[in-house]
Amino acid sequence: MPIPKHVGIIPDGNRRWAQSKGMTKEKGYDNGLDPGLEAYRICRDSGVKEVTFYGFTTDNTKRPSCQTEAFTKACINAANMLIDEGAALLVIGNTKSPMFPKELLPYTNRSEAKEGQIKANLLVNYGWHWDLNTLADAQNVNKNNIQNYIQSFDISRLDLIIRWGGRRRLSGFLPVQSIYADFYVVDDYWPDFNSTHMADAFNWYKTQDVTLGG
Amino acid sequence: MPIPKHVGIIPDGNRRWAQSKGMTKEKGYDNGLDPGLEAYRICRDSGVKEVTFYGFTTDNTKRPSCQTEAFTKACINAANMLIDEGAALLVIGNTKSPMFPKELLPYTNRSEAKEGQIKANLLVNYGWHWDLNTLADAQNVNKNNIQNYIQSFDISRLDLIIRWGGRRRLSGFLPVQSIYADFYVVDDYWPDFNSTHMADAFNWYKTQDVTLGG
């Protein structure tokens, strides 16, 4: 297979990384920012057209406030870094909840890409319930294209999902777009990101047949 | 973690197994029947409460007719074997399409379990589009429980999904129920099923933390 068009990134293991360094859990998130920008650049330079980052979900907001504050701040910084880079950024999540940071409201409409840049989506206070809810509200749904009626309609089908931190699950990540995605797991924690992780994932993807269930 | 309550089985690799034995692809499906019954029994005897088998999806029906006929026949036989065993069987899929075998219509309402038996779900002509479509039709949806409005509402959240045949993807398997599931891949083809595959998957599951995104 060629290079994936759309890559999903689940940057897990920040808290375990912090603990392994003798720090409290919430200290791990800041160390996930540079890896995020590097992952975006590797995708862009490899010919990937769209990258989606798992920021945080509505489930995650049940954690202690020192953690929710830390990952919210990291998402704000991540969005600004992607904008500075020139990505066509879309922040997507439930803006009607107090857990959605006001600073990110301007990015809930996709920004324009600078030359040579690609689409980047950042899930912020995203929930799969929230995503599918608009389907229940829609009128005259064309049932061959129900993905057009969900909140995340502007995010395309995922080809490859890479998860750091060893867990082998989606944890609420874009269920409709993940339906046919190939899933690659990196055991290292996200703050220990290394460009070889991406190269290994892309090389593995090349060995997969993509049939879309056919 | 304890034993999973609900286990999903993706029995892939039948066609590759047949080819590796010098047979034509469609010959592989019959050899997947005994493994299915054994997997059901292992789950039941381990304390699992519900097992869901990926039979075939609407995507799969695009394959050559000698294959669709072979996997349809295998699904009919699988359903009868599970009924004979005493499982509380539910066959679930789009019954309004000609690809749904009439022989399985009686099982689209869940049968009653014989003593000591558990729930077994078999996806037959299942499609994720078809599954989510009823959400678009539903009136007065309680948005905290949207899974109650999908076609597969009677299938509970999956804890563990085991896929044979080495592929690392869901291929359309119950997207809503798979959202938090841990995903275990067996490289062997499904007809080479061995009880140690199940034991390995259960032992691996025990080492996972289950947070449901929290």
UniProtKB/TrEMBL annotation, chains A, B:
Record EC number: 2.5.1.31
One Pfam family of this chain: Prenyltransf
Positions in coiled-coil regions: none
A GO molecular-function annotation: ditrans,polycis-undecaprenyl-diphosphate synthase [(2E,6E)-farnesyl-diphosphate specific] activity
InterPro entries tied to this protein: UPP_synth-like, UPP_synth-like_sf
Cited Gene3D superfamilies: Decaprenyl diphosphate synthase-like (3.40.1180.10)
Top EC class, one word: transferase
Single GO biological process annotation from the record: polyprenol biosynthetic process
Name this protein carries in UniProt: Di-trans,poly-cis-decaprenylcistransferase
Keywords recorded for this protein, A-Z: Transferase
Family: Belongs to the UPP synthase family. Z-FPP synthase subfamily.
